[in-house]
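Thanks for the sequence, V.! I ran NAD(P)-binding protein right away. Repeating your input here for the record:
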Amino acid sequence: MKYGIWDLIRDQWTPQPAVLKADITDKTILVTGANTGLGFEAAKHFASMNPGRLILACRNRAKGQVAVENIQASTGFKLVELWIVDLADFGSVRQFVDKFEQDGGRLDVFVANAGIGTAAYEATKDGWESSLQVNHLSTSLLALLLLPSMMQTAKEHGTTPRIVIVSTLMHYWVALDQGVLQSSQVIKTLGSAEYCTPEMMQFRYPVTKLLNLFFIRALNSRLSSSIVVNAVNPGHVLFFHGVHQESTSLYRYCYSEIRRDFTGLRASIDHLMQFMLAFRTEVGSRQLVWAALADENEFALRGEYISGSCVKEVSDFVLSPEGKKAEGLIWEDTLDILNKVDPRVSEIVMEFLSSKA
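Predicted structure:
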């Protein structure tokens, strides 16, 4: 599928339906990056449906606690928990999963919303380009390590848990070049300081979101029917902080974590795009909720890209022979990297995933 500027304008000017409501009583919902932006608004929607537990996974404890208190005050829902995880640190991801395993609870919905966007190369303590680690590697690691808990939930409660990874419509406008695909280590090449020139880093965020799409498609093709995994596009979103009042909500504009490093012409264009086209953050968050809870055709949501509260065809590159080759290479490369980070990855793959897509 090709997606141009007029498609963007049409979609952004299309009125969005109200947030989907569902019975999530007794269910556990986990949202990463839940202290601000889309994650916060989605978490607030989930809280309004009275789940069994709502876990906000945040990097910053102080900001996360403020989010917990805001959600409790605005929805009246008290079973909101703050758990700390820093996706720029593999050790933090492992500790988070260790805690979840010890907690012993069920996990019905995992919304992988946390992400960063930067145009400058910066390495994490683990030696990876920061947005590549946060948006792709750690997000994939968390999804894989949480699979046993979700499989157990499906078995014990007769439900179909979901993994929802937040992607972007910008995946239509990027691809992986042949030099990367022909390298012996695709992810390492993408994350190397030599490859991450200022020109390449301008496209880093949509490239990492393209990797998310490859991951969910590869994971879905190897999963049993016990779990639904998909990717969702929230649309071009204005990021606000909500100030709740009894009769209305007042908003003030602020930069999201994704756009905090935008400068110069890029920042000017982004401001113009937001002024002309962007949804409010709450409107965009409805897509995360829909991807997590829509049940009219559950099987049709498996491994799919969701936008505008329906399944949309992914980019021509993803569907092309080159894209299918890239999907396989990235899957194998990602597993190889993550198994070195945590040996549980290979054990989970062997136990829960088929060997052939």
